[in-house]
Specification:
Helices cover 35% and strands 36% of the residues of chain A. By secondary structure, chain A is an alpha+beta fold. The first copy, chain A, has a three-stranded antiparallel sheet. The N and C termini of chain A lie close together (5 Å). The mean pLDDT of chain A is 95. At the A-B interface, helix 1, strand 2 and helix 2 of A face helix 1, strand 2 and helix 2 of B.
């Protein structure tokens, strides 16, 4: 079973990496870019076969170590 | 229009960040974790309204600056 955890900064939290990429895109004459935000995508391969248990386990991982919930949100998706 | 670009290391390329998270999860007694890979998720807000043109533009961005295509693959998704 594969879980995909997307971790991204909360709305309103400054994203310097995104700002840097936005600036670079402007410099390279890409037009019409209004905003860039950069997050992490964590792909976890689990031996667990129950989808419900996998979500429970991965939620705990996200809360404990993958995301800093003070400034970051996360989404969890189980793909197979 | 919002484009999501997922950039991840190619199969076979060492992912030290993923290895570190895998190790941390093991240390924290999370069981059944077989593999962890970590990629970047870049969310770009575009003023472009044509989906085809947005894909074309974002593909160029990915090739030119967002991904290092020697060691990384990317996927592009247009969400709205």
């Amino acid at each position: 079973m594969i879980a995909i955890v997307n971790v991204f900064l909360k709305e309103g939290v400054l994203d310097p990496q995104g700002k840097a990429v936005h600036h670079a895109l402007d410099t390279m004459k890409f037009e019409g870019v209004e905003d860039v935000r950069i997050g992490k995508q964590i792909i976890i391969k689990l031996s667990e076969t129950s989808k419900a248990k996998a979500i429970e386990e991965v939620t705990k991982m996200a809360e404990d170590i993958l995301a800093n919930t003070v400034i970051e949100n996360y989404t969890i998706e189980i793909v197979e």
